[in-house]
């Protein structure tokens, strides 16, 4: 059997897809953002509203993109959507930003945070932060070089493990919380209090990551049916969990204490509720959450490399587009992501680099959401869709406005970063035309 005949294994079912959505989104944000969202809003009621509104915007995003995903159920997600809707050039630009900068920087940022948590947890030297981060992504990458069922199973296991501390926090807060800070306002007024929009922005980032399941469209069973279910159900469950954790903590601690504790509020809650062991277990739960999020990203991002290589949109396309004949996974693409990520961890600030990508990435999200209207017009209103966005056109418009809020906020809060991200994506323009000419000439030589 030749490598060229090997295809992706369409073996991911609903439960695995659902676990990947939930597991990729829920990292550390829900555990550490409680105080910051409360400080920004100034009251627990507004904080809950911020988490709810951020969730509703994300749900509108998911409902909108599900219609596109059901019509274009191919490996590569956003790259494929942009290509089909706007053409080869814009598809390349969206993919280029992801594979060169966004994917390795976001994986490196999360892995670095995991390394930091682990050195603090075990009380070892900070020198080991980077080695631990690289070791973690290497082990997860190796797992995802095996058949995709292993990565999918790992997603289910880590998602179940991360849900345990979340459910414990919700149950304790609902039934045993006595402080009942719901309805309280902060007695100490922060300079940032009243900035409800910034609080919503923070929650939207905590909901981010669900779109990565679309990269696996070529490996999901009946993606035109299961992909919308996984996205919508996954986001809905995450909204409930995020609101439950927030409400549980507000039921158990006063607003003033949450404010004073900052990022340590959840750990203090766990220690106070379940004893010293509880705090340790929550820290372990957070690390498992991050590992699960890393697994989802390392499993999905290489599929963009693979999809772009299949269209000759990357250098070394033949090598990057090759699947392992035994595992039917893009091993070379995974190795490439691993190498780029490790290099970034050792040389640059991956947190800052991942932040620079937000402006451009969310701009592409808006373009994809607008694509719902384009596809409907292009299809002449024919009802050939297996999934249609409920509440059309209100829901897509809400998704566009909500995501537009993120883009505008980034432009005003980090103008230099926004310009830098545009500059990075601009570097792909000459590469696009070079590759187009190179592969065209290569094809001509082959014919001759």
TrEMBL record:
It comes from the Bacteria. This is Amino acid permease. Its main location: membrane. Gene3D superfamilies: Amino acid/polyamine transporter I (1.20.1740.10). Keywords: Membrane, Transmembrane, Transmembrane helix. The chain crosses the membrane at residues 12-32, 44-65, 99-122, 128-146, 153-176, 196-214, 226-250, 284-308, 329-347, 353-375, 387-409, 415-435. It is found in: Membrane. InterPro entries: AA/rel_permease1, AminoAcid_Transporter. It is a multi-pass membrane protein. The lineage of its organism: Bacteria, Bacillati, Bacillota, Bacilli, Lactobacillales. GO terms for molecular function: L-amino acid transmembrane transporter activity. GO terms for cellular component: membrane. Pfam families: AA_permease_2.
